[in-house]
Write a structure and sequence with these properties.
The complex is a heterodimer of chains A (108) and B (113). Chain A is mainly β and 108 residues long. In chain A, 0% of the residues lie in helices and 44% in strands. Chain A starts with a strand and ends with a strand. In chain B, strands 2, 4, 5, 6, 9, 10 and 11 form a 7-stranded mixed sheet that branches. Chain B has a 4-stranded antiparallel sheet with strand order 1-3-8-7, with no helix packed on it. Classes of the chains: A mainly beta (108), B mainly beta (113).
């Protein structure tokens, strides 16, 4: 069965420090992975998808099929990065499987 | 703040009553979704609809019903058969074939006592 695991419910880093939000998945086929973000008082929105291989707001995420991971990284965290982050998996059907989310707090 | 709206923001019901949550979008999206979010859990798909007059069950459809009579609207009814209805409900929409880029509503928090 498909599953997305985000092992950290809470993550705190200092401003300017590197940040990595972990995401592991289980799926036997070819997955599509995404990161969604929800800033305070805003709606959940798509941050990035692995297929596009782009950097959004300084964040990148590489799909590692060997480790079944899709960790979200940023070299220098900013205060405005504080938010709730969700990793999501698509199996090609009309369904997105979400992880439980990680709340990132960037300490000034 | 248009796009996709959900009303009301907070909803209170007595146990045993059916309740309908509203979801409207003006994005001209074909696909719409309903998720449930509980503390410590990710979003779980209740129902989705790819086109008017058609919808499919998601992972946790039991105790819920939906309709899709108009492209813009996808109301969710939480029936009395739903054993644990108190939760935060999120509606989303996307263009057909791009389910990954879902636009989410602000959510409705339902409390059943």
């Amino acid at each position: 069965a498909q599953r997305v695991t985000q092992p950290e419910k809470l993550l705190s880093v200092f401003k300017g420090a590197p940040v990595e939000l972990k995401c592991n998945y289980s799926y036997s086929g070819s997955p599509e992975l995404f990161w969604y973000v929800q800033y305070s008082r805003q709606r959940l929105q798509l941050l990035l998808r692995h297929i596009s291989r782009e950097s959004i707001k300084g964040f990148t995420a590489d799909l590692n099929k060997g480790e079944t991971s899709f960790h979200l990284k940023k070299p220098f965290a900013q205060e405005e990065d504080s938010a709730m982050y969700y990793c999501a998996l698509s199996t090609g059907a009309n369904n997105l499987f979400f992880g439980t989310g990680t709340r990132l707090t960037v300490i000034p | 703040d248009g796009g996709i709206t959900q009303s009301p923001k907070y909803l209170f019901r007595k146990e045993g009553q059916n309740v309908t949550l509203s979801c409207e979008q003006n994005l001209n999206h074909d696909a719409m979704y309903w998720y449930r979010q509980d503390p410590g859990q990710g979003l779980r798909l209740i129902y989705y609809s790819q086109i008017v007059n058609d919808f499919q069950k998601g992972d946790i459809a039991e105790g819920y019903s939906v309709s899709r009579e108009k492209k813009e609207s996808f109301p969710l009814t939480v029936t009395s058969a739903q054993k644990n209805p108190t939760a935060f409900y999120l509606c989303a929409s996307s263009i057909a074939g791009a389910l990954y880029e879902q636009y989410f509503g602000p959510g409705t928090r339902l409390t059943v006592t």
